[in-house]
Write a structure and sequence with these properties.
By secondary structure, the chain is of the alpha+beta class. Strands 15-14-17-16 form a four-stranded antiparallel β-sheet, covered by helices on one side. Strands 1-2-3 form a three-stranded antiparallel β-sheet, covered by helices on one side. A hairpin with a 5-residue loop joins strand 2 and strand 3. The chain is elongated and about 115 Å long. The protein starts with 11 loop residues before the first strand and ends in an 11-residue tail after the last helix. About 10% of the residues have low confidence. Keywords: DNA integration, DNA recombination, DNA-binding. InterPro entries: CB, DNA_brk_join_enz, Integrase-like_cat_sf, Integrase_catalytic, Integrase_recombinase_N, Integrase_SAM-like_N, Tyrosine_recombinase_XerCD.
Length: about 600
């Protein structure tokens, strides 16, 4: 009697010559189209029967791992973060993923086989992290990262279940938002008026823009006529590589010739994030004043200025580094003597102010850039004060952030004391006419206006002493004349004496290939410069740049200047090193052949 042949694809059980039982189960099809037959072996017939039935059950439920590479936690997470996630998420998101993967998950769990990873392994890792000092928020971020990574592994059938969906993440208490009080905001604004980029901090406290949104603003986003700011991009944290070929022995970010390999900005994260914001009139005036100040800095920096049209920049036009901006915020808190807080707490303050003032929810959502599905929850976090406190605070803040007769509608009661303190300087009055006047130091080609006659006289006296034969004097202009005819208008009027420093300069030019050009003049010199002489003056100890000069010779110029002679000399050496490399490798620096 002949045995009937089993249909193709049926499971097979047999006993080998060595006495062990073997089973084969077809679970699918391989990538090459052949049947995917899985093998199991046991000592007895009942054991092999059970093993085959279990494998068939997994096959029927779709829980058999895909054939191929046997992943470890380390190999899968590395593959996922570099080859999958990096192509589909933004720069800030991938930075967070990499920290979680390389600093926490791989050191703690990397040796496990991926299919053997258990929820308990993850929970013990979270407990170990918190025991070592990590916050619950950090452990929660790690949990979210591994959950996303393992969800992808399930989709690609590298594993059948995601243990991170079973593991319990650390309890993450949603901390109550603690906005600054009215008095704290007053002190912050008073201190902000004394530093560079004053408008940057007023925008943070009044409009609640995120740090990246403020630093990513460009002048094309500011509509002075309509009184509107358009938020549509965010500043990214720079990422550097060595410009010296890793010869300096430092981290890339501290390399003297570091090169930024990341774009400066990215589009807003969501459609809700891209939004127009109406700006109070006084804040628009402050932005106009800031633009005039930036124009003076551009003239002062001359060839060192890099034109990128950002609203808030360094002294040479580069967009502000978020890390530097963070430290300036901390300095502002100390100077104002208010409690230490995150930079993001300025955004909390603005949101609370809007809710306090009774701005409609839809308008608050639009200003803050909250997505519709999350806005109600976010508003609940901010709206936690009792009604009497809300009303009292609204009365104070109305006069603090907006001009009289503004959103609160009462020109008599809304003008609080802080508004008077923060208003623009008013010119002095002439003792004879008792009319507002400006005292102008007329230096020939320079007109320098002052509120006080003493400051103007002091400048003229020193100017005449340093430049024999060049006469200078003090003129009295009425306010209307200066506003109409004076360069810079009212914003240029000074309420303090001028500053003079010795500025050290260095200059060199190189031909293609790196050969120095004989200039027949000293390469380094110094000059006494006033702060109203933008072509000579700088506040920085040393700053430098290299640039390829337009023209047939294709010369590479080196320009250095600063207040510290030693620092300028050291910067000159660094700049020359880059200039030689730039002269020899123009494509590396994006220099066009059209120069």
């Amino acid at each position: 009697m002949t045995k009937s042949r089993k249909p193709n694809g049926d499971s097979t059980i047999y006993q080998a010559k060595d006495g062990r039982w073997h089973g084969y189960v077809t679970v699918g099809v391989k990538d090459n189209g052949l049947p995917d037959r899985r093998h199991v072996t046991r000592k007895t017939r009942p054991e092999i029967t059970k093993a085959v039935r279990d494998l068939e059950a997994k096959r029927d439920k779709g829980k058999v791992p895909k054939a191929g590479q046997r992943w470890t936690v380390e190999s899968w997470l590395t593959h996922w973060v570099e080859n999958i996630a990096a192509l589909t998420v933004g720069e800030n998101t991938i930075d967070g993923y990499r920290v979680a993967v390389y600093h926490h998950l791989i050191p703690g769990l990397g040796a496990h086989r991926l299919e053997k990873l258990e929820p308990e392994h993850l929970e013990r890792l979270y407990a170990k992290m918190q025991g070592a000092g990590s916050s619950a928020g950090t452990a929660h971020q790690v949990h979210r990262t591994v959950r996303v990574a393992l969800n992808e592994a399930v989709r690609r059938k590298a594993i059948t279940e995601n243990p991170a969906t079973i593991a319990k993440a650390p309890v993450l208490d949603e901390t109550e938002v603690e906005p600054y009080s009215v008095e704290e905001v007053q002190r912050l604004l008073l201190e902000a008026a004394k530093v560079r980029n004053t408008a940057r901090w007023v925008i943070a406290l009044a409009l609640g823009l995120r740090q990246g949104e403020v630093l990513g603003l460009q002048w094309e986003d500011v509509d002075f006529e309509a009184g509107v700011i358009l938020v549509r991009r965010g500043r990214l944290r720079p990422r550097y590589k060595h410009g010296c070929g890793d010869r300096c022995g430092r981290k890339p970010g501290y390399c003297p010739t570091k090169i930024n390999i990341r774009r400066e900005t990215k589009s807003t994260k969501s459609k809700a994030g891209k939004r127009p914001i109406g700006v109070p009139e006084e804040l628009m005036k402050l932005l106009a004043q800031h633009k005039e100040t930036q124009d003076r800095e551009r003239l002062r920096a001359r060839d060192l200025w890099v034109e990128k049209e950002y609203v808030f920049t360094s002294e040479v036009g580069e967009p502000l580094n978020p890390n530097t901006d963070y430290h300036r915020w901390k300095d502002l808190l100390k100077a104002a003597e208010v409690r230490d807080a995150r930079l993001h707490d300025a955004r909390h303050t603005a949101a609370t102010v809007l809710l306090i003032l009774g701005v409609p929810d839809a308008v608050v959502d639009a200003i803050m850039g909250w997505e519709p599905g999350k806005s109600a929850r976010m508003r609940r976090r901010y709206q936690h004060m009792t009604s009497p406190v809300l009303r009292q605070t609204a009365d104070k803040i109305g006069g603090l952030l907006w001009p009289a007769g503004g959103p609160t509608g009462n020109s008599e009661t809304d003008a609080g004391p802080a508004q008077a303190e923060l208003s623009l300087p008013q010119p002095s009055a002439d003792p004879v006419s008792d009319q507002p006047v400006v005292f102008v130091a007329n230096l020939g080609r320079q007109l320098v206006p002052f509120l006080d006659r003493e400051h103007a006289l002091a400048l003229v006296d020193r100017w005449n002493a340093e430049r024999p034969g060049h006469s200078a004097g003090v003129e009295v202009w009425d306010q209307a004349k200066w506003d109409n005819e004076g360069p810079g208008g009212r914003r240029a009027i000074r309420d303090r004496s001028v500053d003079q420093k010795v500025i050290f300069h260095a200059y060199a030019a190189l031909r293609p290939g790196g050969e120095r050009v004989d200039l027949a003049v000293p390469e380094q010199w110094s000059v006494a410069a006033w702060d109203f002489e933008p072509d000579l003056y700088t506040d920085r100890s040393a700053s430098w740049r290299t640039a390829r000069r337009p023209g047939p010779e294709q010369l590479v110029e080196v320009q250095v200047r600063g207040t510290d002679k030693v620092a300028v000399a050291a910067a000159f050496g660094e700049a020359l090193e880059q200039a030689v490399d730039r002269a020899q490798n123009p494509g590396k620096y994006g220099d066009s052949s059209d120069w």
